[in-house]
Design brief:
Blueprint: H1 7-25, E1 34-35, H2 36-42, H3 59-71, H4 74-79, H5 81-106, E2 116-117, H6 122-135, E3 141-144, E4 159-162, H7 165-175, H8 181-198, H9 203-207, H10 219-236, H11 239-257, H12 260-271
Antiparallel strand pairs: 1-2, 3-4
Helix pairs in contact: 1-3, 3-7, 5-6, 5-8, 6-7, 6-8
């Protein structure tokens, strides 16, 4: 499987990897994480709210994030690129603001434990993961025995997993790499994704869409898509409809091919 029909996901993966490598090569990684007491309280660097999700600061997080986005590309295929990109834009706004604010509130209560918000779009990945969890059904399940005495027909022993479990495991590992900040971001992303789906968000945000040209949708492409849909619907209506349509079109073409003289002679014949 590749990034077929998922241009937004392909751009996310390429952009995330490129930005992370570029930040490391240019030695500007210190601009992409948030230290609550220094960056927000002391220097009021509020622009970091919208910068910390642009890249990661270590290669392990880049690897697991790219794997997670690749596994979640099916969400874009089911929704379409325009709706998926609009969902990402709304999620980015919420996940950029809410996790640092929660960290700011929890820091005085945790003796400085909640003082570091790591860089990276982990909240957005978990927002997409919430859609994946709700939309994509599992294909099969399997059970891993926890002891040698567990029998094959014993449903009480072992751990039941599905074909989607490894995707959850990759995302979970990503959220634990720089806890507690990464855990807070993942939790907020999961809540935002479910709020979008359950109708908790305002309907105007859920129904809002980016302009089509931003995701490569032109009027000609939409016309081609509608034409393809019309042809598929005509094919599903059965051969009878197609035959009658073909007969009518052939009759109309034959009528056009008749000369004016032949039409006048036919009219006189009918009158006589």
């Amino acid at each position: 499987m590749t990034f077929t029909s998922t241009p937004v996901t392909r751009l996310l993966v390429i952009g995330l990897v490129s930005a992370s490598i570029g930040a490391s090569m240019l030695d500007i990684k210190h601009y992409f994480y948030i230290t609550i007491d220094t960056h927000l309280w002391r220097y009021r660097q509020l622009w970091r709210f919208f910068a910390y999700q642009l890249c990661y600061t270590n290669s392990i997080e880049v690897l697991f994030a790219a794997m997670s986005l690749y596994n979640l590309r099916v969400v874009e295929r089911m929704w379409g690129s325009r709706k998926f990109a609009s969902f990402l834009a709304v999620s980015w706004i919420f996940t950029s603001l809410v996790p640092p604010v929660i960290m700011t509130v929890l820091r005085p209560l945790s003796v400085g434990l909640f003082n570091y918000m790591p860089a990276g779009p982990t909240p957005i990945i978990f927002s997409i993961l919430a859609q994946f969890h709700a939309m994509v059904p599992h294909v099969y399940k399997y059970r891993v025995a926890t002891s040698q005495s567990t029998r094959a027909n014993d449903s009480s022993g072992g751990v039941t997993l599905s074909d989607k479990s490894y995707q959850y495991a990759i995302a979970l590992h990503l959220s634990l790499l720089q806890w507690p900040g990464s855990v807070v971001g993942a939790f907020v992303g999961w809540i935002v994704g479910n709020a979008w789906r359950s109708g908790v968000m305002p309907a105007s945000l859920v129904s809002w869409r980016l302009p089509g040209w931003m995701v490569g949708l032109s009027s000609q492409r939409r016309s081609a898509e509608f034409e393809g849909l019309r042809r598929r619907l005509e094919g599903e209506n059965g051969p009878g409809v197609g035959m009658s349509t073909g007969i009518q079109s052939e009759g109309q073409q034959a009528e056009r091919r008749r000369t004016m003289g032949q039409q006048i002679v036919d009219q006189f014949r009918e009158a006589l």
